[in-house]
Amino acid sequence: MFAPIAVALAVGLIGLAYQALKPPPPSKLCGSPGGPPVTSPRIKLSDGRHVAYREAGVPKEEANHKIIIIHGFGSSKHLNLPVSQELIEELKIYFLSFDRPGYGESDPHPLRTVKTEACDVEQLADKLQIGSKFYVIGISMGAYPVYGCLKYIPQRLAGASLVVPFVHYWWPCLPANLSREALKRLPVENQRTFRIAYYFPWLLNLWMSQKWFPTLSIMSGNMDIFSPPDLEILKKLSESPSEGQEKILQQGIHESLYRDLKTGYAKWEFDPTDLINPFPDNEGLVHIWQGCEDRIIPSQINQFISEKLPWIQYHEVPDAGHLLIFERKFCEAIIRALLVR
Question: Fewer CB within 10 A of the terminal residue: the chain, N end or C end?
């Protein structure tokens, strides 16, 4: 009796291991036979990948300030920041946004890291000839590429803002009790998924595909993750959806959402607290913006980072949640703080 059970169990485990280790379905790349069409301008990087981009604001030739916007989890270059035309013209701002690897119309990058994301930003700036210096704004998950820019291309930055920024609960610089308490504040399903992304990244595709347990609250439709201010903003956004929503995941969820989680929660080459002030002569500023009502990003870790790096200006915004940048008064305050000295 024992032998057949043992054999069945072994076969089941082998099957699970195979499912976990086998590569995900091949992506249908934009512009490839049978793949989605290319509808946006794209540049070609040195490794052959294509990056789709979008320009807004004043023409770059007339701009006093050039800002690269880095979108977050499940978003794209088409995120609409509520910036008034008056502010754009007053400060002469040029905006450049792009689809991060695997999102929208940008090619996936199987070897994606925090460093490669920073290199993508630099190459995009060079290909579009926006100048030797530019600003970066990273939103939520889009903040880890900003950390990469601060580490790997600080000489290219005129300033940086990390808005409701991604936190890595296993950064070595974090006190164990701080990261543990911050992680406990999250829904249980998020805690499990982030642990798998960090400890067992090879298992993440299988975990995210299974139906027995919830994976991420934001993907399962659990609205409790959003604070009342966030729900108000979501209601407004639903009344005028941004362009290109249907294209965000068109190249496959594995190369966009899942790869994003793996990259963010991988073991980095550096700790945020090891960063050196890129503006020792006060020629630029680095900001962190945190909503006091944010239920997605625990504030205590961003507080800790800013305390360890006093050259970062830390802002806690009362009565604001994770989506604070989509409220005009907050969005324009973020941009003014970055640009106006």
Answer: N
